[in-house]
Amino acid sequence: MDYLINTPIEYLKGVGAERGNALRMEAEIDKLWDLLNYFPFRYVDRSSYVRIIDLPVHEGQSVQLKGRIIGVREIGTGRGKRLQASFQDESGVIDLVWFKGAKWVKDKLTPGVLFRVYGKPTRYSSSWNIAHPEITPFQNISHEKGLQAIYNSTEKLTKKGLHSKGIEKLSYNLASNITGKIPEILPQELVQQYNLISREEAYKYIHIPRNFEDVKRAQLRIKFEELFILQLELFLRKNANIKKAGGYYFEKTGEYFDAFYKNHIPFELTDAQKRVTKEIRRDLRSGNQMNRLLQGDVGSGKTLVAVLAMLFGIGNDFQSALMAPTEILAQQHFKTIEELLSPLNIKVALLTGSTKKSERKVLFQALADGEINILIGTHALLEPTVKFQNLGLVVIDEQHRFGVAQRAKLWRKNEKPPHILVMTATPIPRTLAMTFYGDLDVSVIDELPPGRKPITTLHYFEKSRLKVFQLIKEEIALGRQIYIVYPLIQESETMDYKNLMEGYEAISRAFPRPDYQISIVHGQMKPEDKAFEMEQFAKGNTQIMVATTVIEVGVNVPNASLMVIESAERFGLSQLHQLRGRVGRGAEKSYCILMTGEKLSQEGKKRLQTMVATNDGFKIAEVDLEIRGPGDIMGTQQSGILNLRLADLARDGQLVSAARQAAREILTEDPLLQKNKHYLLREELKRHLKSKPNWSKIS
Ligand code: ADP
Ligand code: MG
Hints:
By secondary structure, the protein is an alpha/beta fold. Strand 2 and strand 3 form a beta hairpin. The two termini are 29 Å apart.
């Protein structure tokens, strides 16, 4: 193993200094081991040949033919110049065509020699041809084998002869000489339990498979190991945090919680809210720092749970903070929470980017003196200038954008790190949560408050606009309110603004004063103007709210029963789901209308179909993961964590669960992997941590 890990790639037969450099620069292949970990991205079945008469076998797919050249000619002039060869097998003739490199190819095309040809046939009038096929004399095919591995290459690598085939040759040489060099690192029980092939076999067959069964088993083994190591890292880090940090001990439920729960809580908690509150309570008096993720669909009542948690803090003489992703949402939380807690003697304050300097000064003083019990705000809370007297709990109402590193900033706000509760508005697929939030405990609110009616979602094309306007009128006539939302995508802000304004004008014409009052909110408005317009709508003074996605999160107007989303094909799934969650908050039946143009991409169609089919945020999140992949969902900052080589969090969900389970079990038995039998596993883990410098800093 050491030999593979430590030997520079230059030393491999067929590499040398120049190619070694290219491999290092272009593919991060530094040592032999790196080449072994440079996996093929697909395999081609080279064991069978297609007869020309049977073309096409699968439309658009490459095929392999066996035959002889019966004639070569150059045709055309200038740019149309090309080399054409007639290739014949026992069933028919096909043309092979080259537009570039013709001379070099021509010398190779000896008539009469038996060739293997590989490429994608296209129909050309009544016959077939293959442009730029791979063509190899049969006698030169060194290792006749079932499957050929195809590797990624780059222009620079190709120049050094390291196109896919060149890399294949190197990998072939290396992988056929690893016998006895790759010891098993997984505990034998695991290998048996999951019916895995050995590590050595896996590295051999991933490069030199005899058939697709080999490929499958090699990939399974490598994926499992990859996920297993990742989960071990997460658990070890979590355990280390718990040990190192300790946590504030919230001994009692406290007078504030008791008074609120008994006399002022506006409604009976759902069973899910009760359960989750208990889980939080248990954490807070465990003596360890809480790191809990609270998942719950839009409208499931996370805010109230957060308030209860903060009351525990205040009752134990600690301050609490709540951080929201946008200014509007911070304001809204501030308003809601101040109102909820007004019967109690609790001071709630708001800090955002637009808090004035003079106000800040007063606020910071009050915060440092402990006069403020709850501070609500945006990312502004994270600034080092924001100093608490005794911060005990932070709630993060996040939009998927708050990773491990940012959480760590909060830990420095008091002597011991405060308890942390992360709330996610859009459910995250389980597999992703297990990985991205693997260091957190998870609570789920899987129940909506009673009396909610499911939202009916409809998809209309532009041509049905009049019908949609009619629906709007009917809802308003019933005394309800309407959102009309326009996309906002940063790259084309001016265009979006134009769309919004045009839309606003069209709507103003269709819904004229004085019968109708319309509010408008968008990102280019001053915060106080936004707040004013929101207020007008919330009070029912306006019936229609025209807005960009600034209203995406958290806005709560229960009387709004219809959400129209313009250019819905331009929104992502989780965003659509968030937006839709703005209606269906009152007792009335609610609707969401997705307006789109006629032309839709495959993905766009799938998004719309999903929205129409279900209100279940978890299902939507799964589809989202399938469409976009994990990197996109969690944001690029976190991509390092998700940098998996073979495993795919969207497709390998079961494997993620299995690996997590296995990791948990092994650490229960041997918390620091100190037993002899885990020696190699521990070494492997160490190597991993070394290659992820950001991680070790965080924990
Ligand atoms: P989210 O989980 O999306 O943040 P909110 O906390 O904003 O949801 O709650 C959505 C709405 O449900 C709010 O109007 C809130 O007052 C209401 N609500 C919360 N809990 C309950 C409950 N137990 N019974 C009835 N209504 C509730
Ligand atoms: Mg919320």
